[in-house]
Write a structure and sequence with these properties.
By secondary structure, this protein is of the alpha/beta class. Helices cover 47% and strands 17% of the residues. The protein binds pyridoxine-5'-phosphate. Pyridoxine-5'-phosphate is lined by residues 9, 11, 45, 72, 92, 94, 102-103, 133, 153, 187-190, 208-212.
Length: 239
């Protein structure tokens, strides 16, 4: 089985920093530490309201860090412009509502094909690998392939909430990505406990994990937390 990558979402380092309005803790320092501990890339969500990560944070990571940067963003003209100028390795298009606490559901690709076809083409044309964050729903997967996205990230939030039917849905969706020729990533709500089955899915090439890892780092430290997740993923992958 191909190895699986770990992208660490460092948004909540910025959440903590912004609580006091200063510059500590520094997301760039977190990026360096998670990479040193075995993460393969850095994920940052530049929200329209800039509630955690800000433009200067993504610019600093892009400038200072050689590892792949996965920029999560809404499919707005403004953010597309920023992405094309920043040129991250990847962009993950997510739905965004200002009032939500986190990305609560997947992108409705099927309901906005024309708009997303243009956004995907602009980003791919700029040399950026594009993924669409979608629920594990066959109609959304087919729409993602139809609008030209090379990658989908399956929203694991419902699976992480513990509904066994959601595990079946996730497995079926992962299998369908292969039939559609899409690269499959997954993320949201993943923890030490619920990551192994997802990491063992052969189609899944990358997990993006944030909130749990940053929270756990308060107790165990950032390096040990990432090393433990890395080892859990590798063991699951090895069977
Ligand atoms: N992937 C995407 C597209 C997300 O929007 C998020 C949350 O920002 C994550 C992964 C990480 O989710 P969590 O913070 O629950 O691990």
């Amino acid at each position: 089985m191909k190895p699986i990558r770990l992208g660490v979402n460092i948004d909540h380092v910025a959440t903590l920093r912004n609580a006091r309005g200063g510059d500590h803790p520094d997301p760039l320092r977190a990026a360096r530490e998670v990479l040193a501990a075995g993460a393969n890339g850095i994920t940052m969500h530049l929200r329209e309201d800039r509630r955690h990560i800000r433009d200067a944070d993504v610019e600093a990571v892009r400038r200072e860090i050689a590892a792949p940067l996965n920029l999560e963003m809404a499919a707005t003209d403004d953010l597309v412009r920023i992405a094309l100028a920043l040129h991250p390795h990847a962009c993950c298009l997510v739905p965004e509502r200002r009032q939500e606490l986190t990305t609560e559901g997947g992108l409705d690709v099927a309901g906005q094909r024309e708009r997303l076809r243009g956004v995907v083409a602009a980003l791919v044309g700029g040399g950026i690998r594009v993924s669409l964050f979608i629920d594990p729903d066959p109609a959304q997967l087919r729409a993602a392939a139809a609008v030209g996205a090379p990658v989908v990230e399956l929203h694991t939030g419902a699976y992480a909430a513990g509904n066994p039917a959601e595990w079946e849905r996730l497995q079926a969706a992962a299998r369908l990505t292969a039939d559609l020729g899409l690269e499959c990533h997954a993320g949201h709500g993943l923890t030490f406990a619920n990551t192994p089955p997802v990491a063992a899915l052969p189609e899944v090439m990358e997990l993006n994990i944030g909130h749990f890892l940053i929270g756990e780092a308060l107790f165990a430290g950032l390096g040990p937390t990432i090393r433990r997740m890395r080892s859990i993923m590798d063991k699951a992958r090895a069977g």
